[in-house]
Amino acid sequence: MEKSDFRILTLETTCDETAAAIVTSELKVLGSVVASQEELHRRFGGVVPELASRAHVERILPVITETLQKANLKLSDLDAVAVAITPGLAGSLLVGLMAAKSLAFALNIPLVAIDHLQAHIYACRMAAGKNVFPCVGLVVSGGHTSLYDCQSATQFELLGSTIDDAAGEAFDKVASMLGLSYPGGPSIQRASERGNADAYAFPRAFIRDTDTLNFSFSGLKTAVRYQLTGPGGADFSSLTIPEDKVADIAASFQAAVVDCVVAKSILGLQKTGHGRLCVGGGVAANAVLRKALAHEAEQGHWELITAPLSLCTDNAVMGAIAVEKLRDGVVESLDLDIRPGLIRKN
Ligand code: KG4
Ligand code: ZN
After folding, report:
1. Given the CA of residue 116, which atom of ligand 1 is nearest to it?
2. Strand 17-24, strand 29-36: pairing
3. β 80-86/145-150 pair status
4. Which helix (H) or strand (E) holds 114?
5. In the predicted model, is pLDDT for residue 4 greater than 70?
6. How confident is the model at residue 38 (pLDDT cuts 50, 70, 90)?
7. How far apart are CA 209 and CA 321, in angstroms?
8. So what's the pLDDT on residue 234?
């Protein structure tokens, strides 16, 4: 794009947040709105894809309107529109993409595609107010737990990822077993404050295996289940778990996740030789994880950049990564499609 000073509307509808933001070429945020669907999915203990996409349809236009109002701009003031197209829930992604294509067509402005996982790391760039690349990027969210060698904002090489559940997914499922509310991460963090993290020795998959940067949380989840029900794994929905046991299990489970995430992050830094770790995604909001990483960064003399709490869970400000693409002239045609699945490393 030739114009040096531009304004981009960024849209985020990959999962259960409907979000929009307007950012400038100087990465200034003029307006940002996030409409969460937490209430809608709470009674199911997790995101129901069909409900999510229907809610996006209802919310996307009001969210865009409110974002424009916050920025004190009109649609005609926009120079480009960007949208997260991968990875995510197919129905949810489609709502954002259709809104973005309609605006690009109607306003005759460029359309930019956003990789949601790259955007989670770009939240660190937004927070740092300086270039953060190259770095090791850690995305810990409800759908993903992955480490990347990030050469630039848009050049990511996957170093390792979970082979089963994502860290946030494990938080959500364990919270549900413990009778704690959705989303599970904040509930477990709260419950853990009264618990003993050494009460239960839960498994830490691959932690001593320096050949892999992969994660696995399904065994940990099963270990929590057996702790509650005995090895038979009987139905736990009818169990009454004493409050102190909930707190101890929450704290011990959280410690196991944090230990694995911290260990593999350090290994990722060692293997790549990078001196900087950027952390994004919903689980990056976890206070125990943040503290553990900060401690290791201090001890190991590497730089830690963690997304601020407001930019950990899904938002459209992190979609400012579109500024980099637009500057490089990477724009899409109206044939652009969604890519719901994640490309995994074997
Ligand atoms: O990044 P995000 O909003 O959505 C995805 O892209 O997946 O992450 C949502 C996840 C949920 O699983 C939620 O339980 C988890 O982030 N989460 C947390 C915390 N806050 C949110 N996990 C642990 N501790 C937290 N404080
Ligand atoms: Zn996300």
Report:
1. 6
2. antiparallel
3. unpaired
4. strand 111-115
5. no
6. confident
7. 34
8. 67
